[in-house]
């Protein structure tokens, strides 16, 4: 029999996507310890997640700096002793300050957890931010910012957030080097005391999580010794999009221009969020998207272009980002807006939509690699007060949303008032 | 530990199968034994440009991406100076689609003028985005020709210059395909929720009929021993002064690789590492500093690079790096510090094995290095390194006559 290489093999629809839901221990200080025990390998990830304290324009960097400097010294250990302890056991300590939450994460082999976890407790509850370390942090952070400010994509991202949200929230504030000089040890201590407390903490453990690991965490973090007397109160962020639609940051030597354009939307608690994710995928959310097909694969203007919908606690937005040859920047912009118009004026052909449905389900399945990924999916709903219904709805929406409905959404949410930032030359 | 089975098709294609029933996914990874080192000096950047063209449709299938996306799959590829690696991640129930697509482009490409023209542009934009339009983006374009005088590692994967890519012709593309893209020069790894028998049958069906082609016989000019220090100073539009020191080391298969790699960890891995602690935290000469090995298949480089704190003199900064390297040469390492870097290697490997794609790519790469099963002995090889071997390697590597130093001076 001659092999038929022209026709694609039979394929099957993707079904039975199984998410592993966490179990929960309620610790006596009120902390919820969620755990997903789903690993053959002897490793574990322990995440401590804290809601951010109130952001203030007088101290725009203090939330991030506090998080970054937690491991720079405690009353008992210097930064260098803390680093020795973590590194000696082959563990990884990560810290991250996002717009809404800050976290501290420990990756450890199970056999070393009893040695590494007490250090994390010490870091979270007793970090003391020595002056000398703060000075080094300020100096090196400013230098990193100086380097980043030479990068068009960095400048475009910062400017776009500023244009989208205004300067009066953590979401939109555009950091400048001199902001680092406003940091003081007292303020970092203040944020640590307010924010890094048991009342404000969620623990998510994934990997190989047996009774022993849970007990260890409970003994160290389940007591009342790190409760705070007052509950953290945070105001809604003040969000004010720019009244000017188009912004150009000129860089005369640029070989490429960074483009970022988009508009405010909603977060994942909104009923149209998942349908908009489908629309976004068609438009710019995967390698075969319309933006990639047109602007990279047909015109060759760029190495890459994409769009995304971002969900934050108190906001959401849609954006397109790319870096294109400076000489074709205007053409690229024209093509982006043209593709948006096509979404509004024409229903998506069923064949294309069917491809995107399968792609999205396959991609979701592929994102469930291990216990950590299941924990990430849980994080994706926990802080929005959503349940696993969210994912059931997602699968249902991906499978059934109609071209007509997507066209309606395009007209409703992608109307003409886009905010646009270009860094480079136009 | 990665378990696998291995067989070879009659046309010479080596196939490795790693079964992991715990995942619903499958990975199909094809490694071609060709990289930028195999290029003509006047047509550099070609291996990488070619990688782009592999997505421009094959002889029987006009679009590569679409059918894969339709069955829920994703794919990508990368090129280095040594290899070109393509991978597909797909729900395991649709594995055959991956075989169909991957085998057709090994059989033959569509060789379309339009695809070549577009991808020339795309790669030129990639060149600009990653190398020319970034502060310090062109470091490797400058450092490679300083460190290598004869070996093709003297040019970067992206190519020496834009014009080499702009001038590529369809004839060049066809020649390159005929020379390198055939079963004898490839390694196929299939991993995930798959069965050995199923893979055997699919491999025979889709890859079996492809003509074996010519075995590419690699014969590259080898680098002569460097005998004196080399330096180059570049005035650049960068915000901070920076220094890059490149020392020649052995190839990835040498037993000394493990001691050498651990040296880079001692110097710069984690906040407790020597360079970070001494030069960033204590002396505050650098705002960032890093040491790493290139891990190339031919003799490669050990790199120390850092950005200087504003106002610090280059001489002082460089002397401080040298003093740390001298400590490694002159003082034997304490047991605790050696245990520390070994522990980090151990946990890194355990964490890396969580990822199916990583496992598949490692099997392919180690098979190319000689035997995929050697991957399973990596941990032991690191564990076996002694303090005196570290000292011995440090003495062998860190001499000024073995070093090329690049200074970036800020014009700002």
What's the short version?
Chain A has 426 residues and is α+β, with helices and mostly antiparallel strands. Helices cover 41% and strands 19% of the residues of chain A. Chain A is built from 14 helices and eleven strands.
Task: Give the topology, please.
The complex is a heterodimer of chains A (426) and B (412).
Chain A: E1 23-26, E2 32-37, E3 43-51, H1 62-68, H2 79-88, E4 92-97, E5 101-109, H3 113-126, H4 131-148, H5 152-165, H6 185-195, E6 201-207, H7 211-221, E7 246-250, E8 256-264, H8 273-284, H9 290-298, E9 302-311, E10 316-325, H10 329-345, H11 350-366, H12 371-382, H13 389-400, H14 403-413, E11 419-424
Parallel strand pairs in A: 2-6, 7-11
Antiparallel strand pairs in A: 1-2, 3-5, 3-6, 4-5, 8-10, 8-11, 9-10
Helix pairs in contact in A: 1-6, 3-7, 9-10, 10-14
Chain B: E1 5-8, E2 14-19, E3 25-32, H1 46-53, H2 65-70, E4 74-79, E5 84-91, H3 95-107, H4 113-132, H5 139-147, H6 162-166, H7 170-180, E6 186-192, H8 196-206, E7 230-236, E8 242-248, H9 257-268, H10 274-282, E9 286-293, E10 301-308, H11 314-330, H12 335-352, H13 356-369, H14 378-383, H15 387-397, E11 403-410
Parallel strand pairs in B: 2-6, 7-11
Antiparallel strand pairs in B: 1-2, 3-5, 3-6, 4-5, 8-10, 8-11, 9-10
Helix pairs in contact in B: 1-4, 9-15, 10-11, 11-15
